[in-house]
Design goal:
Layout lengths: L12 H12 L8 H39 L6 H32 L2 H7 L4 H14 L1 H16 L9 H22 L3 H20 L7 H9 L2 H10 L7 H30 L2
Helix pairs in contact: 2-3, 2-5, 2-6, 3-5, 3-6, 3-7, 3-8, 3-10, 5-7, 5-11, 7-8, 7-10, 7-11, 10-11
Length: 274
């Protein structure tokens, strides 16, 4: 028969005190939003740099090829402005919407969300960090496409600085939409399909001149987040741009971006707890 000390028994006073002290121990505080966002952004940027750069070239060459094809149909004027602006924003749609929908769809299917769920970071930091990293890849391709389009159609290069506002605002709107599609899709194949459909909508409704579209298609075009980025960029090609309308389009694009990122954050919480 072995003798067990009384202090190690479950009902002893010492065991109760130790259990109480363990239960009273404070957990480490959750990380704040901004430091968490920066850490996830850097991690996503370094992780996706090698894999996404070839796709960025594909997106850029695709937009340049579309402008070359449209050059045989459109001579100049407002239609040329729409083609150049739509093709430039199409690079953002290809990466921020299409690729991000595929990424989150695969992340959910493979159980990768469980890794992020164990980290003491706010859900918004995960969504914003990944969206910001993917949107950052669109900057060089968008600038190259815009410069090439202006030279091809004879448009002025004076106000290309407006891309400093168009790229992040349109990127936020499209990245939030892409993340929400990837997180809400029940299967990764469906997330890929939805991302492709979204990019096709940005292509057809953003690049083609709005004046040649039926009224029903114009209404659908107004529902697309990238439309307002396209309109804001296209308005700057005129000799005297109406900056009030440009700022209005950018404001709408920013509001849509905030709403889409909020929906993506909710979708991340929903997918992480399942």
């Amino acid at each position: 028969m072995s003798v067990v000390p009384a202090e190690v028994l479950p009902g002893s006073a010492l065991a109760v005190e130790e259990a109480a002290s363990v239960g009273a121990a404070e957990l480490a505080p959750r990380a704040r939003l901004w430091p968490s966002l920066c850490a996830i952004y850097r991690a996503q940027l370094s992780r996706a740099r090698v894999a996404r750069i070839p796709l960025l070239f594909v997106a850029t060459f695709q937009s340049i090829g579309i402008m070359i094809l449209m050059r045989g149909v459109v001579d100049g004027g407002g239609e040329a402005e729409s083609v150049v602006a739509g093709s430039s924003v199409l690079v953002v749609a290809f990466v921020a919407l299409n690729l991000l929908a595929q990424y989150f769809g695969q992340l959910r299917a493979s159980g990768g969300l469980d890794h992020y769920a164990t980290l003491p970071v706010p859900p918004a930091a995960v969504v914003l960090g990944a969206a910001g990293a993917y949107a950052s890849f669109t900057v060089p391709g968008t600038v190259v496409t815009a410069v090439f389009g202006c030279v091809l159609f004879g448009l002025p290069l004076t106000h290309l600085w407006v891309l400093v506002a168009v790229i992040p605002l349109a990127g936020a709107a499209l990245a939030g939409l892409g993340a929400a599609l990837g997180l809400l899709a029940p299967r990764p194949e469906l997330a890929t399909l939805l991302g492709q459909l979204g990019m096709s909508a940005a292509l057809l409704l953003g690049v083609l001149p709005a004046d040649r579209m039926p009224d029903a298609v114009r209404f659908t075009r107004d529902l697309l987040p990238s439309t307002y980025g396209v309109e804001a960029f296209a308005r700057t090609f005129g000799p005297h741009p109406d900056w009030a309308f440009v700022l209005g389009d950018l404001a709408v694009c920013g509001v849509v971006g905030v709403l889409s990122l909020a929906v993506a954050t909710w979708a991340y919480r929903r997918a992480a707890v399942r």
